[in-house]
Structures are given as structure tokens and as C-alpha cells.
Amino acid sequence: MNILTAFVGSKVKFNRRKWDNFQIKLEHSAENVRCLPCLGWIPYFWDTEIVFDMGISIPKEIKDIDEKWDYTWELRDLGENLLKNGKGEIVITKKGIRRKLQYWNTYKKRAIVLGNLHPHKEYLLYVKYSAQNKQSENLCLATLTVEDRTRIQFDIFIILFTVIMTLIMTALAKGCGL
Question: Are 129 and 19 in contact (CB under 8 A)?
């Protein structure tokens, strides 16, 4: 998969961050086709609703935990201009045998909903957590680029046109005895 993303170019890069010994990650929404391992390189387009799920891994040293964390997210462009923001709440718990056995103990679907974004721009997604008199700094959990679908359609058209013209020219050359 790394070879494919290097060749095609991944349009979303997720960064795992640590805060207070908790490991935090964002990923494509489970309802999105991009969450499949081999399809994560598909870019987001301007007319696609962009939604991310959030996972938090609780350290093994913490046996029992049941807290609520508040978080705020900010979407910024490369000039650090604020474009969108929002807030949410996530329950950090290790209750239940299933959660004790999983690496990502806490998981929230649709944690960050960005909606539709403008094409040909690069974005930075920052998240700040606060829990029980503790507050994290802005953690950059994702960078993404939104593409225009017409550019990709034109690239596909050029490739198909080249292949078809090559086949026609080969058939003509073979018919003429070359």
C-alpha cells in the first residue's frame, strides 16, 4: 500500500498523537469506501461530505477509567486562517471485556464532520482536548487536500484516448504491411 500511495499520492495524511499517555488517531469514516485498506488513496472531492472517526488508545497502566473528554476542532488553511470549527465530547472508558482486549479502546463515529470543502486547497485539522483540569495544545491530527473531479476525469480521458489512438495506428500500420 505504501508503494501505491507514493505513486498515486495520498490526499489525506493522518497523524497519530500522544496526550497524557493516551494515543489519539483520526481515520476515514466507517461508512466511507476510503476506510478499506487498499482504497485510502482516493482523494476527497469538493462535493463529498468529509467525515472522520476518532480512536483513542488507553495505556495499559490505567485499569479502570470512565471519563468524558471535551474536544474542539479547527480546520485551517496553510496560512493558518480559521475556516471551520466545532466541538464534541467523547467518553473514555475501558469498561467491558471487549474494550479491555482492543487496542483502540474508545472509538467515536462521526467525531468530526467537515462537510464540503473548496477544491485545490490544502487543509490542516487541529484538535484540542480538555479533561478534568487538563488541556492539550492544538494537535494536528490530519492534513488533507480536496481535488476537483473534472481534473481527474480529464486525465482518464487523455489516457484512454492515447490507448485507443495507439491501437488504431497499430491496426492501420499492420493493415498497410508495415
Answer: yes
What ranges do the domains of the chain cover?
A: 2-147, 149-178
3-state secondary structure of 96: coil
The tens digit of pLDDT for each residue in 129-162 reads 998 888 999 999 999 988 877 777 788 889 999 9
- Residue range 11-35, pLDDT digits in tens: 789 999 999 889 999 998 888 888 8
Q: Please give the helix or strand (H or E) that residue 17 lies within, else none.
A: strand 17-19
In angstroms, the CA 57 to CA 93 distance is 10
Residues 6 or more apart whose CB falls under 8 angstroms from that of 39 comprise 33
Contact 8, 34 (CB under 8 A): no
Rounded to the nearest 10 degrees, how much is the dihedral formed by the CA atoms of 14, 18, 22, 26? -10
pTM of the model: 0.78
Which grid cell is 101?
Answer: 482486549
Homologous superfamily of 2-147 in CATH? Answer: Immunoglobulins (2.60.40.10)
d(CA 111, CA 71): 10
